[in-house]
């Protein structure tokens, strides 16, 4: 299976090459050339099967033999053995037809672990097989960075540089990135927003000389393998609720659009999903876009769900590519308009296609707090603020179609955001025992200005992949 770029001008690549490449050379994002389809019988057979076995069945046709099945299966088994819950991503009922899919039982307590635990193993495997090295650069609003540091720490083939917005992530998130004493891990606190960090990472990929010198690779959801691995839990959740014979909707707290896109991929592969609800916090660019058809960047507002404080929602480009009938030239036009005027208009036909499958709702800060408080009062269940965006938006879906079960994705453990949770519920959630001493561990990070050249200079000086290459 080849993978094509959303901007239509980069070479098509197999799975392993797309995995190492990250951002396509034309600035676009890789997608499989065609969607493999799982039959209703295959999906039905997932009932009662382990998470790892469902992952093998879903990812097998996407990897399509590019990594030998025995290696892929071993890595999947190892990745999901690192989770603290036997079901890996368990489902809990919160109310009539409202369910919570807990995605935070991995090592860093956020949904990013589900893909990252596998991605780390896949990249290490492909690099070792090729005798190659990589310099990973990533942007984070808190969770991708922690999960990536955990998955890549100590690997010989890789140096990892994580850019996060200085002062805009929670203490737990920051400490998960800054207290890992491993020589290949570098936490960079950039004086800017998450969008600045993400723009810088993309600019590094678009800087051909830097990219080639350092053998850059990416672990953000620009990396197709991240999205592919996240599609698996849509299958496990829907099957527990009666799929493929019963449609299920999903409500997803959304920022960079990777997680909800994974649901859309599951649907393309044959899972009968009814609606996909985009839940945003007060940074509501996607909700505005779905309602008005115009994608307009405004300033980022800090909220209690900082991991979703995003305006430039990277993976939306993948959905636009499909909605525009895989027309790379149309996507280049939209992205050029975004660069020039910080906005673009979606034409009527592609917008209608998007609205056929997606709904969107913005949840303001008062309602996030109310959702955490009301859920705790009604059921004793403690949500983190990101997950509260998901359940609140999910309740909106149920009002329209109460007969269709709604699964709200719970993307982080409440202990990652203890202050907001305590303010809303009076409960201060404790970190699990393996992280009990996190607040006492010694931190190490570098503060850098919001400036491309300074960040590139820092990375070039520290990366081992560049050693021996003429500057
Ligand atoms: C806890 C949490 N919830 C939700 C999101 C939003 O997910 P996505 O960026 O895939 O839309 C993020 C960040 O990615 C996150 O860290
Ligand atoms: N919320 C994310 C932002 C980056 O998203 P990604 O899925 O593209 O890696 C984070 O926690 O860093």
TrEMBL record:
It is an enzyme of class 4 (lyase). Residues 4-80 form the Threonine synthase N-terminal domain. Its EC number is 4.2.3.1. It catalyses: O-phospho-L-homoserine + H2O = L-threonine + phosphate. The modification N6-(pyridoxal phosphate)lysine is found at residue 112. CDD domains: Thr-synth_2. Belongs to the threonine synthase family. This is Threonine synthase. It comes from Microvirga makkahensis.
């Amino acid at each position: 299976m080849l993978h094509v770029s959303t901007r239509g001008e980069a070479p098509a690549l197999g799975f392993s090459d797309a995995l190492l490449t990250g951002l396509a050379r034309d600035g676009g994002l890789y997608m499989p050339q065609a969607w493999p389809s799982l039959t209703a019988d295959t999906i039905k057979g997932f009932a009662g099967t382990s998470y790892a076995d469902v992952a093998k069945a879903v990812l097998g046709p996407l990897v399509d033999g590019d990594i030998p099945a025995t290696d892929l299966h071993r890595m999947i088994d190892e990745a999901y053995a690192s989770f603290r819950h036997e079901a890996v991503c368990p489902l809990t009922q919160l109310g009539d037809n409202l369910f919570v899919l807990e995605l935070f039982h991995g090592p860093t307590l956020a949904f990013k672990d589900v893909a990252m635990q596998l991605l780390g193993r896949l990249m290490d495997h492909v690099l070792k097989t090729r005798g190659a090295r990589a310099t990973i650069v990533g942007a984070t609003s808190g969770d991708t960075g922690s999960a990536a540091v955990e998955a890549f720490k100590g690997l010989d083939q890789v140096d990892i540089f994580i850019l996060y917005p200085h002062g805009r992530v929670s203490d737990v998130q920051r400490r998960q990135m800054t207290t890992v004493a491993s020589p290949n891990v570098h936490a960079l606190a950039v004086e800017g927003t998450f969008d600045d960090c993400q723009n810088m990472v993309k600019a590094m990929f678009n800087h051909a000389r830097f990219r080639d010198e350092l053998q850059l690779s990416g672990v953000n959801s620009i990396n197709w393998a991240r999205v592919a691995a996240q599609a698996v839990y849509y299958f496990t959740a829907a099957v527990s609720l009666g799929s493929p014979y019963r449609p299920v909707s999903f409500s997803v707290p959304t920022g960079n659009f990777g997680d909800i896109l994974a649901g859309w991929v599951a649907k393309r592969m044959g899972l009968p999903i009814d609606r996909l609800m985009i839940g945003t916090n007060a940074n509501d660019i996607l909700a505005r876009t779905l309602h008005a058809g115009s994608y307009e960047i405004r300033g980022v507002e800090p909220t209690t769900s900082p991991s979703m404080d995003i305006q430039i929602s990277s993976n939306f480009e993948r959905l636009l590519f499909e909605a525009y009938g895989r027309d790379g030239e149309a996507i280049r036009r939209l992205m050029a308009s975004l660069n020039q005027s910080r906005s673009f208009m979606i034409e009527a036909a592609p917008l209608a296609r998007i609205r056929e499958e997606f709904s969107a709702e913005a949840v303001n800060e008062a309602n996030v707090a109310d959702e955490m408080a009301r859920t705790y009062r009604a059921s004793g269940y403690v949500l983190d603020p990101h997950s509260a965006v998901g359940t609140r938006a999910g309740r909106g879906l149920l009002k329209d179609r109460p007969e269709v079960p709604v699964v709200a994705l719970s993307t982080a453990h409440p202990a990652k955001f203890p202050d907001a949770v305590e303010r809303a519920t009076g409960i201060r959630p404790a970190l699990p025992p393996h992280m009990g001493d996190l607040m006492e561990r010694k931190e190490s990070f570098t503060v850098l200005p919001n400036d491309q050249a300074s960040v590139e200079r820092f990375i070039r000086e520290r990366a081992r992949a560049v050693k021996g290459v003429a500057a």
